[in-house]
Design a protein that fits this description.
With about 450 residues, this protein is α/β, with parallel strands linked by helices. The chain is built from twelve helices and 16 strands. The structure holds zinc ion (ZN) (2 copies).
């Protein structure tokens, strides 16, 4: 999908946005009244009915179904692309791996920080918890991994950086003393790749503008900022509110709450990246390579490998090995990773893999002539993503037990289409839904 898709769907987004704005205007509550016993009873009924609906086949699964496992995969956002699809409330690409009480987050697409709160920030006045309690759930988040820097994987990163400080981001509370200290969230993602994609959609011929970062330091002027500069620029863009919060509202230093480690960067703490032979000028972005380690602590060892999301370079798949089992996240990729995903995923318990619906692409784009922007976009969609009918073969070749579909594009793909993922795969197929929990390994209690 990605940035070229914006051209084709901007009208739709404008229409949707206008609709949201119009409907929002009529929903503003101007008075607040304390709920009576009757009201609370009615609200509880509505909530119970919603929960029951979610537990029905075809509804959302209960977030508690994986609660008996020490290690759990929690899907936070299960679609992708540069839009909000009509008729679905899937958030965009994001997952959490929970080991014991510790969270590892993979990507943060649009809507996913709200899902984080829904999944890990329990407590509601209608179900017995105290009203007005302070959120600290982000104290459990240890590290965040970006597969690549497209907006459907990072759009909620500003929300995490801006709102997270009010929910425990980058801090730990000593349970014995109550003293809060700073333990930054580790943020791992690609470094600046240094060059833009080839202009296959003739954007510059049509008078398009390339956006550069702005700095007096030439080293910081780039059209392709990496994870560290992106983080710094978010703080700069929102400097007014950040400074208000620290100077006037006693918040901690926002810039100390995360610690960025770039894969392929040269800064302190960065992760060296054994770059294989790639030919970016010709769009070859995924040469064969062995997996390499990017992170390790007492719960997980995380390895990565390049996958094929041309022309984007680099795009990483990640593998998390725990005592309970292994989970692999494909990131955005076409089906042919020159064996990289198969090496990384070999024998894992769970493969979380992106899919795109070929029928939707054909219906939407038809069969355009070569050397047109539409042809470039269709080629991109079909080869830098994995069609549903191809993903089963990928899972089979990775020899995984379970295939979980995420980054489902479009977000409202019919289930009948998604079931094509079972083609060539004899293991367990799970069609991902936001807030679905999947246990890893054996139940612990
Ligand atoms: Zn994506
Ligand atoms: Zn992408």
């Amino acid at each position: 999908m990605d940035r070229t898709t914006l051209l084709g769907i901007c009208l739709l987004v404008i229409v949707i946005t206008a609709g949201i704005a119009a409907s929002g205007a009529t929903n503003i509550q101007t008075t607040v009244t304390k709920p009576t016993g009757d009201t609370i009873e009615k609200m509880q009924k509505v909530q119970d009915e919603a929960t029951a609906r979610k537990n029905q086949p075809g509804g959302y699964p209960s977030p508690s179904t994986g609660g008996k496992y020490h290690t759990r995969l929690v899907l936070l956002g299960t679609t992708g692309g540069v839009t909000w699809y009509p008729g679905t409330d899937r958030a965009s690409s994001s997952s959490a791996l929970v080991v014991g009480d510790t969270l590892y987050i993979i990507d943060l697409g649009q809507g996913s920080t709200s899902r984080l709160s829904e999944a890990f920030n329990p407590g509601h006045p209608l179900v017995g918890q105290e009203m007005g309690s302070t959120s600290t759930f982000l104290e459990k988040a240890r590290a965040l991994f970006f597969s690549h820097l497209h907006q459907d994987h990072i759009a909620d990163y500003p929300s995490l950086l801006l709102i997270g400080p009010g929910a425990g981001l980058g801090t730990r509370t000593d349970p014995a003393t109550g003293v809060v200290s700073i333990v930054p969230l580790v943020v791992i993602g690609p470094a600046d790749r240094g060059m833009c994609e080839i202009d296959r959609s003739h954007y510059l011929d049509r008078g398009g503008t390339i956006v550069y970062t702005d700095s007096a330091d030439p080293a910081l002027v780039t059209p392709t900022p990496g994870t560290r500069l992106m983080t710094s620029l978010i703080w700069q863009a929102y400097a007014q509110t950040i400074n208000d919060m620290t100077l006037d509202n006693a918040y901690r230093d926002f810039t100390k709450l995360v610690e960025v480690r770039e894969i392929g960067g040269t800064g302190p703490g960065d992760i060296s990246f054994p770059v294989p032979e790639v030919d970016l000028a010709n769009g070859t972005t995924c040469a064969p390579m062995d997996p390499f380690e990017v992170y390790r602590d007492e719960n997980v060892v995380v390895t990565a490998a390049l996958v094929d999301h041309h022309q984007v370079f680099p795009t990483f798949a990640y593998r998390f090995d725990t005592d309970d089992g292994s989970v692999v996240f494909s990131g955005d990729t076409g089906p042919d990773t020159r064996g990289n995903l198969q090496k990384l995923g070999e024998g894992a318990d769970i493969l979380v893999h992106e899919v795109i619906d070929r029928a939707w692409i054909d219906q939407r784009m038809g069969f355009p002539d070569e050397d047109t922007p539409a042809y470039a976009l269709k080629t991109h969609l079909l080869t830098s993503h994995t069609t549903i009918d191809m993903v089963g073969s990928v899972a089979r070749d990775c020899r995984v037990d379970t295939l979980v579909l995420n980054h489902i594009v479009p977000g409202n793909t019919p289930t009948s289409h998604l079931l094509q993922a079972q083609h060539n795969f004899t293991g367990r197929l799970i069609i991902g839904e936001d807030l679905m929990e999947i246990g890893v390994g054996k139940p612990s209690w």
